[in-house]
Design brief:
mainly alpha, single chain
Length: about 350
Amino acid sequence: MLRDSGHHGGGMATATFDRRGLDTAGARSYTRGGGEMVASAVFRNRHGRVRIVFRVVLFLALFAALLIPLTKVAPSDEWLRGVLPPFLEILQLGYLAAKILACCLIATWVMTRFVDRRPFRAVGMGRHAGATRDVALGLGLGAFLMSFVPACLAMAGYADIVVLPAAGSALLLGIPLLVVSTAIIGVNEEFLFRGYFFQLLIEGLGPWWAAVSLNLVFGALHYLNPNGTILGGLGTALWGLLLSYAYIKTKSLWFPMGIHWAANFIEGAVWGVPVSGHRYGVSFLVTTLSGPEIVSGGVFGPEASVLMPVGLALGLLFIHRYERLRASERMQQLWHRYVQPREPGSDELDSVRKT
């Protein structure tokens, strides 16, 4: 228990903080007085924090309030059609992801700065010991996971591979664009589905309920992609669970961002297979997967293959067992102070965890 004293108008005011850095004296003060007591019971938990359900609603409302006007005033992606037609689809996806990411970053900053009173780096984006390692390991793991299905099918004789099908000029122009676009898409999806919103759910529901519920949405949204299939949606939800565990293990977004970025790039720009139903337009290889669609993934891509869960299981085993892959001391501190689920009965969402 820490105490902080300061002079206010000639008197002495004392604030009492618990080990999480919450103003416990301030939290108790909300119970004084009729109107204040009612307001406290409705909007704040016993720690003096705004209740999670209100933070969820406020974040989503703020995100929508930013995104809807931006889609109206930002230049349309139609200008891309006349400039770079071979790479149109991936550039359109990257442009859309950039707009969504900008809105998500602003909404997260507002919530952390003015509602939660927590540092922005607590979301998992801060510089810390091990951040470079996390990105490097993520890139390597993402490349392995997304090569698993094409490589298995190639070794079994169910893949026809053409090397460097595009002209040299197209590769020189296209690959850098794909690097940037896939990076924006990966960072955007991780910030959306493993960032502030996911961490609010962890605080209220616990990590595993939060991961399962949000990744069902993650899979359903990918099911709506072009050429979406049920297996594709389920496979993407499993990918989301792995990425969620990558965040939970390291308490940082750098590791899952590295995985996501590499997976998108390797799948579309190296192997040249569909990425969740999308084609990139240029790649080092063009791989035509044959055999039953349930094995190859069909037009949705390897995420829809029944072989994909095997690769993901290997990835989960690596994340779980690799001893050097762990949260830094700084990220552990931020997690325990701001993200770790509260003790039973501390918030209204705890009742969901008991059902």
